[in-house]
Design brief:
This protein has 9 helices and 7 strands; from the N terminus they run βαβαβαβαββαβαααα. It is of the alpha/beta class. Helix 2 links the parallel strand 2 and strand 3. The longest helix is centred in the N-terminal third of the chain and has 20 residues.
Length: 264
């Protein structure tokens, strides 16, 4: 692969709000490890690639609303692999920092310092995240006055944090990877009297249970009505749906993982 002009140290803002995806390069054995099993490492990496393609497609559909797509990636040598997956309009920036909190605040600081008026840092595990939710986050950040916008995930964390200023306090003293992440973040906001705006609850696909939930939401199961009622209006995620439909035919562990899946 050749070098790519999108691999800049920090992108120069050409839009008001950065929709920034926090992503790992889809390398087998290094990504979506909590999905192995029911998936093989190669299947988990391929599914991660589908998530990235779909979320980038979703972000790109909002470009007319003054947003710009950015992917903040790890590991540092994974940028060229991601260049092959993402639309040309997306900028790619390597993540900086040892902990998740450090990587998040460094990302917000870099993007805001280049001229973006606001930034939404978004996980790469929610391929069906509704466009309406993204649009609402951008609109809330466009309002006068400082604030933080949080998208709560059903596991107690958040799938999105939106900022107008790089408030380091929001990423300190957080019990990362626990059910207390959202609550701790709201506590940190209260300490600096920062207003909090919340979005509808959505979910991250990071284990076998939430993978089954995704299959239910995408109508790939015979009994997924509950998921479709709880998570309505999701993005169609065509790459993810096509790949999961194929996996459900080929991967017995996924097909029999506590539910009976259709084979269409």
């Amino acid at each position: 692969m050749q070098s790519d002009s999108r691999l800049t140290p920090t992108p120069i803002a050409s839009s008001r709000c950065a929709l920034a995806l926090m992503a790992k390069a889809p390398i087998a054995g290094a990504v979506k490890t909590r999905l192995t099993p029911p998936l093989a490492p190669e299947e988990a990496a391929a599914l991660s690639e589908c998530f990235l393609r779909d979320m980038a497609m979703n972000f790109a559909s909002l470009s007319a609303n003054g947003t710009g797509g950015v992917v903040l990636y790890t590991p540092a040598d994974g940028g060229l692999l991601l260049c092959d997956l993402l639309p040309d309009a997306f900028k790619l920036v390597a993540q900086r920092g040892e902990t998740l909190g450090e990587r998040l605040i460094n990302a917000a600081d870099e993007l805001l310092s280049t001229g973006f008026e606001s930034v939404c840092l978004i996980n790469s595990d929610s391929p069906t995240l509704p466009r309406e939710i993204l649009d609402t986050a951008v609109s809330k950040l466009a309002q006068d006055g400082d604030r933080v916008v949080l998208g709560p995930s059903q596991d107690g964390g958040y799938y999105l944090i939106g900022l107008k200023r790089p408030h380091r306090n929001l990423f300190e003293r957080i019990a990362w990877s626990t059910a207390d992440v959202l609550a701790h973040t709201i506590e940190r906001a209260a300490e600096i009297s920062l207003p909090v705006e919340t979005l509808p609850i959505w979910y991250d696909v990071d284990d076998a249970a939430t993978l089954r939930l995704l299959c239910d939401e995408l109508s790939l199961s015979s009994d997924g009505a509950d998921a479709r009622l709880r998570f309505r209006g999701g993005f169609a995620a065509p790459h993810t749906r096509k790949y999961l439909a194929r996996l459900l035919k080929e991967n017995n562990d996924l097909r029999t993982g506590g539910k009976s899946y259709s084979r269409d």
